[in-house]
Amino acid sequence: ELKVEQNPLFLSMQEGKNYTIYCNYSTTSDRLYWYRQDPGKSLESLFVLLSNGAVKQEGRLMASLDTKARLSTLHITAAVHDLSATYFCAVDTSGSRLTFGEGTQLTVNP
Amino acid sequence: DAGVIQSPRHEVTEMGQEVTLRCKPISGHDYLFWYRQTMMRGLELLIYFNNNVPIDDSGMPEDRFSAKMPNASFSTLKIQPSEPRDSAVYFCASSLIVAGVETQYFGPGTRLLVL
Prior knowledge:
The complex is a heterodimer.
Chain A: E1 4-7, E2 10-14, E3 19-25, E4 32-37, E5 43-49, E6 55-58, E7 61-66, E8 71-76, E9 85-94, E10 97-100, E11 104-109
Parallel strand pairs in A: 2-11
Antiparallel strand pairs in A: 1-3, 3-8, 4-5, 4-9, 6-7, 7-8, 9-10, 9-11
Chain B: E1 5-7, E2 10-13, E3 19-24, E4 31-38, E5 42-50, E6 53-56, E7 65-71, E8 74-79, E9 88-98, E10 101-106, E11 110-114
Parallel strand pairs in B: 2-11
Antiparallel strand pairs in B: 1-3, 3-8, 4-5, 4-9, 5-6, 7-8, 9-10, 9-11
């Protein structure tokens, strides 16, 4: 059974600081997704990573994928309050079937 | 585009009642997914369709759950009879594969509370 594990599950950080969220998965896959969910809201797609070594950046967020290590990272640079949300990684295992991680609840404090 | 539309947005019902959740995918998308989100189990895929045909229903928890997609613009998820442990947020998502890249777009969700 595929396992997708995120670390940390809860992250409280100050504005202006940098931090990284990790996503490990237990089976071979070359497609990984990052989503954002605001409290009480739906999921919003952030990044699609399609191959080993893929790196995508949008604003203060940068995602990377290492398929050999079965690891993806979501790096936050100079955090701002608006980034407070829960971030999910999801692994595409077969066809369109996604398995989601537990989510990382990020709180950015002024 | 209006995005994925779900109804109702909130549903409160009593144990034993039938519940029907509805979803309208984004026009032109040929994949439709039903997910359930709870604090205990996180986000789980229940079932997904391709071109209105169910492809994988292995996530459907038990026979009380059923899903249909009678046409490309409408799907339902039915729970009969409902139980308190079915309380969750149910998301519908749709996607389209373009040049090998697929992104699932989620609807706003239906918050279900079974008393």
